[in-house]
């Protein structure tokens, strides 16, 4: 049974004649008769009593007429409601995010969310953690994705598990460099970790947000690091490492965005800090139901 068959049946019932119904539907009479017969065969009962000039609807036909009218009316109402949602109710979620989340995590989250909230549009602003926090503070965005550390006193936040990490695994710092920057690499040293002491006298490329942390860790081991470059963006640090300028230090989930096959990545056994990613929002700003639904989905 199809919607088209129901439409044909209702027109026949309205006019009481197959020929006139065919004319009204702008189709020929034989195909319409075949559609009616197919419907009756499927239901296992006649829908009309036939005489030479008129069709009289049967009790089964009367029941189908009532149900078909309700079905088609509900279909029209549903179509109208969906059209109204998609054309009139335009909700924009405003999201500020660091680059690593925007490149890997956020697209999948938006794809999942859009299956149920198809009428929602997105405005995404990418920047460093401090810029994301500025947007969240001012209310320019509904929420943001940042990486620790940051001042949590003015925000509410939840920890985000990155799918790039295995269950139970935490993010961590890694070094990224061409092989020649690792001592004994060509002597078969295939370790996947590196001690912070091994960075002494090595040219380091760091993100400015982690400067004090790295300085403190090195000084605890009795040396001042040789920082050849400080960057504001992780991808810039990776580009410098790719160019053979030095050893970049970055969170693992940021580093894997653009690791070159010619680079060697090792886990830095410096565990004083885990660079977690967090979703943050301003508790003084009222969030839409769609924004809350997105946050609850994570």
Automatic annotation (TrEMBL):
Q: Extract the coiled-coil ranges from the record.
A: none
Annotated GO molecular function terms are: DNA binding; DNA-binding transcription factor activity
Q: Cross-referenced InterPro entries, in alphabetical order?
A: LysR_HTH_N (IPR000847), LysR_subst-bd (IPR005119), WH-like_DNA-bd_sf (IPR036388), WH_DNA-bd_sf (IPR036390)
Q: Which residues form the HTH lysR-type domain?
A: 1-58
Q: Name one GO cellular component term.
A: protein-DNA complex
| Keywords linked to the UniProt accession | DNA-binding, Transcription, Transcription regulation
Give the protein family.
Belongs to the LysR transcriptional regulatory family.
The protein in question is named Transcriptional regulator, LysR family
């Amino acid at each position: 049974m199809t919607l088209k068959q129901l439409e044909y049946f209702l027109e026949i019932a309205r006019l009481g004649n197959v020929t006139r119904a065919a004319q009204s539907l702008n189709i020929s009479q034989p195909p319409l008769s075949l559609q009616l017969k197919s419907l009756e065969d499927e239901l296992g009962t006649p829908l009309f009593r036939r005489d030479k000039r008129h069709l009289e609807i049967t009790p089964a036909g009367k029941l189908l007429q009532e149900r078909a009218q309700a079905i088609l009316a509900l279909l029209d109402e549903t179509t109208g409601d969906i059209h109204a949602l998609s054309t009139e109710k335009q909700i924009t979620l405003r999201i500020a995010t660091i680059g690593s989340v925007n490149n890997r995590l956020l697209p999948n989250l938006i794809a999942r969310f859009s299956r149920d909230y198809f009428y929602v549009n997105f405005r995404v602003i990418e920047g460093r953690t401090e810029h994301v926090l500025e947007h969240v503070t001012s209310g320019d965005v509904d929420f943001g994705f940042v990486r620790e550390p940051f001042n949590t006193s003015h925000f509410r936040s939840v920890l985000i598990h990155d799918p790039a990490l295995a269950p139970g695994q935490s993010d961590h710092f890694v070094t990224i460099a061409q092989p020649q920057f690792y001592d004994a690499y060509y002597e078969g040293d295939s370790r996947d970790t590196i001690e912070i002491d091994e960075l002494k006298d090595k040219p380091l490329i760091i993100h400015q947000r982690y400067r004090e942390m790295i300085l403190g860790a090195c000084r605890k081991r009795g040396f001042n690091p040789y920082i050849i470059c400080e960057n504001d963006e992780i991808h810039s640090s990776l580009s410098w490492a790719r160019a053979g300028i030095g050893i970049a230090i970055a969170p693992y989930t940021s580093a894997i965005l653009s690791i070159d096959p010619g680079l060697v990545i090792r886990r830095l056994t410096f565990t004083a800090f885990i660079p977690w990613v967090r979703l943050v929002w301003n508790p003084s700003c009222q969030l839409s139901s769609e924004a809350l639904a997105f946050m609850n989905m994570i």
